[in-house]
Structures are given as structure tokens and as C-alpha cells.
Amino acid sequence: MNAAPQIVTLGAHVLDTIVHPVDEIPPAQGSLLVDEIVMSAAGPAGGTALVLAKLGAHVATCGAVGDDVAGRVLRGLLHDAGVDVTHLRTDALPTSASVLPIRSDGSRPALHVVGANALAADVVPWDALAAADHVHVGAPELLGPENVIEILDHARENGATTSLDFLIGGEPAFYPLIEPLLAHADYVLPNAEQARGWNGAADLPAAARALSAAGARIVAVTDGGDDIVLVEGDDLTRVPIVPADPVDTSGGGDAFSAGFVFARLRGASATEAARFGSAVAAQVVAGVGTSNGDYDAASVDALLREVAR
Questions:
Q1: What's the pLDDT tens digit per position in 17-32?
Q2: Residues 181-237 pLDDT 10s
Q3: Largest interatomic CA distance in the chain
Q4: Residue 1, domain member (yes or no)
Q5: How confident is the model at residue 78, as a pLDDT?
Q6: What is the pTM of this model?
Q7: Backbone angles phi, psi at 133, to 5 degrees
Q8: Terminal Cα-to-Cα distance of the chain (whole angstroms)
Q9: Domain that holds residue 106
């Protein structure tokens, strides 16, 4: 695909406030001097849209934010990054937001408000989905299985490929929310904790194969600093990640999803797309927030050529 791909992301949009570094919370009314406090668009729809726009895609994002300061900031951050926010509605619930105190080793707890993300599937821009080359649903567990299946099927019937990424953890009780969707998605992009936990598999390859057996065309499971486990049909591949020195890992999964989808739309194999997604994630986790990094598709290609030498 030579022209910039047309992509729609739909689902969870989060305003992240990231504080770095925070290795302990001061007691009582104590204070702490930190190096950075950054606000960034995030979430498996909003963060993925942001990264896709930086790579050079034409991206429209769909969902809901609140009629509040956080909603106006989140909408503005996405718009300024080149994302079409026409279909990002304003609703009565507060904007979904997180506060992320990032430890010096890159790990972090999360303080989170779900807010308006619960309304993301209330009004779906069907025409925009039909015109897209790809539709990415982020946090489908918040939208209801029947809604998500209708969205994915509508996109595929109109010629788009589809992908899923998730917010929920790996508790087995969540799997009934996920399993019905898998046969309707071309790319399923969980992390290792999610994939292993949902189906109780003995190891990550078995977990990825179980998701594939449930109907996903391609499963790509990220595992932090370890290889990506990729299953396409009967084939299982371990894809080495591009090395990174992580500062904040909070946007890494969304960046990987964006890179994987973008590369597939350019004609890359699944293995090449996983490698490209890893290279994009390496740019993002090297600083604070999903918005971190000065890159585009050409610079990521150049990085991969350099790493391959």
C-alpha cells in the first residue's frame, strides 16, 4: 500500500499523567521532587491512534471522553498529533484517566478511573469503519462482545483488516469476554500475562496457540524484554525484540500494536510486522509517556537496518 493507510481506532481513550521517578510515596503531607510530570494521550485506542499518526497513517479515533478539563486536554493532544477526533464524543461520565508513578526501573503501579470509556460503543461511526483499511478495537472487554463482533464483522465485510488489544488482566474469569471475539479478528495482540492467565496454559507458546485455535488469524504476544511469540495458522515463531533501555513501559503495548498494524498494511509478513512493532515500542519506552519519541516510519525502518548489521 503506497498511500497512507486509513485506520480507525475504537475503544478506550485515557489521559495519562506520568510522574518520574517515584520509588516511594512520601508519608503524610510530605513532598517529593521528581524529574518529569508528563501528560499524554494513552489507552489501547487513544495511544495506538497517537503512535499510528506519528508513523504516517491517516487515523480517525472513536470513543467517548467527559465534558471536563481532562477530556479537553485529551482531545487536544490527539488532535495536535494529527489524529481525527471527529468521532471522539463528549459524554456525561468523566474522562478516563490514570496517574502513573514510574519507578526508576521502569515499572509502575496505576491509579485509574474508567469513566466515559464504558460508553465507547454507544454510537459507532459505521461509515468511517466501512471506509477504513484497518479497524483496531482497543479494550473490547469494555464494549460488550455483541457490540464488538458487529463492529469487527462490519469492518471485514467492507474490506478492512481488524485487530484487538486489551486492558484487562490475565484472570481466567475474563476469558469469556475475550474468547467469542477471536474468530472475528485478524490480529490479536495481548501481552504475556493476559495470554497465559486467560486460558491457564502451561507456557506462552501454548497460550498463544490456544488463542489461535479459538479463531484468531494471527496472534502476537509481547513479553516485556523477551521474544514476541507469534502464531499464524500452524506456525509458531519467536521474534527477537529490538533492544531498548526502558524508562517508562506504560505505552509499549499500544506502540507495538500500532507498529504491527502499520507494517502489515505496508505488506510486511507477520514476523516483519512484529519486528517493526518492537522497534516502534523501543522508541516509546525510552522516555516518559506514549507520546515519547521523535520518529516516523522511515526512521524506524532505518533503525531496523542498523540493528540488522
A1: 999 999 999 999 999 9
A2: 999 999 999 999 999 999 899 899 999 999 999 999 999 999 988 999 999 999 999
A3: 57
A4: no
A5: 98
A6: 0.96
A7: -85, -30
A8: 27
A9: 6-24+35-308
State yes or no: pLDDT of 64 exceeds 90: yes
Number of separate domains in the chain: 1
Rounded to the nearest 10 degrees, the angle between the axes of helix 252-265 and helix 270-285 is 140
From the list 1, 21, 66, 48, the residue with the least C-alpha distance to 257 is 48
Distance of CA 122 to the CA centre of its chain: 21
| Cis peptide leading into residue 21 (ω within 30°) | yes
Sign of CA dihedral 110, 116, 119, 125: negative
200/215 Cα distance (integer angstroms)? 18
Q: Is residue 61 part of a domain?
A: yes
Q: What is the CATH number of the domain that holds 129?
A: 3.40.1190.20
For residue 208 the three cell numbers come to: 498463544
Q: Say which residues have a Cβ less than 8 Å from residue 43's Cβ, sequence separation at least 6.
A: 11, 12, 13, 14, 96, 117, 138, 139, 167, 254
Asked if residue 116 is part of any domain, the answer here is yes
Asked if 276 and 263 count as a contact pair (C-beta separation under 8 A), the reply is yes
- Specify which residues 231 forms β-bridges with: 219, 236
CB atoms within 10 A of CB 92: 9
Concatenated DSSP letters of the chain: --SPPEEEEEE--EEEEEEE--SSPPSTT-----SEEEEEEESTTHHHHHHHHHHT-EEEEEEEEESSHHHHHHHHHHHHTT-B-TTEEEESSPPPEEEEE--TTS----EEE-GGGGGTTSS--HHHHHH-SEEEEE-GGGT-HHHHHHHHHHHHHTT-EEEEE--S---GGGHHHHGGGGGG-SEE--BHHHHHHHHT-SSHHHHHHHHHHTT-SEEEEEETTEEEEEEETTEEEEEPPPP---S--TTHHHHHHHHHHHHHHTT--HHHHHHHHHHHHHHHHTSSSTT-----HHHHHHHHHHHH-
The reply to whether 144 falls in a domain is yes
